């Protein structure tokens, strides 16, 4: 299953699926000749893969190739993700390529990756987080507040839907599918008055000029893991897990673990009307805030049936167990406040 050409001068013990402490700065494998990264072929996905490629070449001296792929999530453009299986549709084909030995790893936006990976796969590292916030994009209006009554806003994220409707119940929120360029084209064609996108994606592609304003986390609480990149490998690849751990940003990894634990506790998917975001310093105290909304049952643009449910807690976090405990505590508070996920909206369980 491996593409890497490696010679081991000593045995390497099987590594756990994640590392709870900083790994040593010296690589434990020798003579890694080549690795292949499976990636979607959108401009943003390719940027992410190229970013990791450059890190591996600069820090490891590896030869890195990209394997471009089209996923089921890319192919289904006429329905919202929550109705066809969630954001996991963007990673399945990449995992198959790893499983079949055609690739060694895949680079993901963590907000698109379930907390619990399929059997046989591991999250080898999480890189330093980019901008975790959402961006307001419009050709005619400078902010959400400037939109006229009944304006059309595009998003297919249930999280963004419920948060937008909490701020502006008058808005008509319509589904918006496609890669970043496709979404911007639909805006430019006049199909929407504004759209909401992840700020990090626009920034990474040098498209900051399209951003009219950045939502604060008070107004638009980010998704769990938003702005962070993770590298997925086969769980059996202890060589890659140990080497890739040297690229990890542990403050980011601990923070997103707390956030993603909320998602797991509330249903386990990336397609729920859920926001979870941490601020602060892990050692001194992470503040984890979460929000839950209830989209109406008839269509994506409907007003939420119930008021938003909010929960938060603070804890010192120095390892994954403490991060998960914080996430579980906040998820319990959400449920106590009335956050319950059902299928009565015709949605697949799971942001």
Give a description of the structure.
Monomer. It catalyses: 4 porphobilinogen + H2O = hydroxymethylbilane + 4 NH4(+). Residues 253-334 form the Porphobilinogen deaminase C-terminal domain. With 351 residues, the chain is of the alpha/beta class. It folds into 3 domains: 34-130 and 227-248, D-Maltodextrin-Binding Protein, domain 2 (3-Layer(aba) Sandwich); 134-214, D-Maltodextrin-Binding Protein, domain 2 (3-Layer(aba) Sandwich), CATH 3.40.190; 257-336, Double Stranded RNA Binding Domain (2-Layer Sandwich). It is 27% helix and 20% strand. The protein contains 9 helices and 13 strands. It has helices spanning 43-60, 72-75, 92-99, 158-167, 180-188, 199-204, 238-244, 250-266, 320-336, and strands spanning 34-40, 63-69, 105-109, 121-126, 134-137, 152-154, 172-174, 194-198, 213-214, 229-234, 274-281, 285-292, 309-315. A 5-stranded mixed beta sheet has the order 2-1-3-10-4, sandwiched between helices. The protein has a 5-stranded mixed beta sheet with strand order 7-6-8-5-9, with helices on both faces. A 3-stranded antiparallel beta sheet has the order 11-12-13. Helix 8 (250-266) packs parallel to helix 9. It is globular and about 60 Å long.
């Amino acid at each position: 299953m491996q593409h890497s050409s490696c010679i081991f001068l000593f045995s390497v013990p099987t590594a756990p699926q994640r590392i709870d402490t900083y790994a040593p700065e010296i690589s434990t494998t020798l003579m890694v000749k080549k690795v292949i990264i499976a990636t979607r072929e959108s401009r943003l996905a390719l940027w992410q893969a190229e970013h990791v490629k450059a890190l591996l070449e600069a820090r490891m001296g590896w030869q890195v190739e990209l394997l471009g792929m089209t996923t089921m999530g890319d192919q289904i453009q006429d329905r919202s993700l929550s109705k066809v299986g969630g954001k996991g549709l963007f990673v399945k084909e990449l995992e198959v390529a790893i499983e079949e030995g055609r690739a060694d790893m895949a680079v993901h936006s963590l907000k698109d990756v379930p907390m619990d990976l399929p059997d046989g796969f591991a999250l080898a590292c999480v890189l330093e987080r980019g901008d975790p916030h959402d961006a307001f994009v419009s050709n005619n209006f400078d902010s959400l507040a400037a939109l006229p009554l009944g304006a059309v806003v595009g998003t297919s994220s249930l999280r963004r839907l419920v948060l937008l409707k909490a701020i502006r119940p008058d808005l008509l929120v319509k589904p918006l599918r496609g890669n970043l360029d496709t979404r911007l084209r639909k805006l430019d064609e006049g199909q929407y008055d504004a759209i909401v996108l992840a700020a990090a994606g626009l920034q990474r592609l040098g498209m900051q000029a399209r951003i009219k304003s950045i939502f604060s986390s008070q107004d638009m609480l980010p998704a769990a893991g938003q702005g962070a990149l993770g590298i997925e490998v086969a769980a059996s690849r202890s060589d890659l897990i140990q080497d890739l751990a040297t690229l990890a940003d542990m403050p980011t990894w601990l923070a997103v673990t707390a956030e993603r634990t909320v998602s797991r506790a509330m249903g386990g998917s990336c397609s729920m009307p859920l926001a979870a975001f941490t601020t602060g310093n892990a050692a001194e105290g992470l503040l984890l805030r979460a929000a839950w909304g209830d989209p109406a049952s008839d269509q994506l643009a409907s007003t939420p049936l119930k008021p938003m449910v909010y929960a938060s807690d603070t804890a010192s976090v120095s390892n994954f167990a403490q991060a998960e405990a914080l996430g579980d505590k906040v998820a319990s508070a959400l449920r106590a406040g009335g956050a319950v996920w059902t299928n009565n909206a015709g949605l697949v369980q799971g942001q």
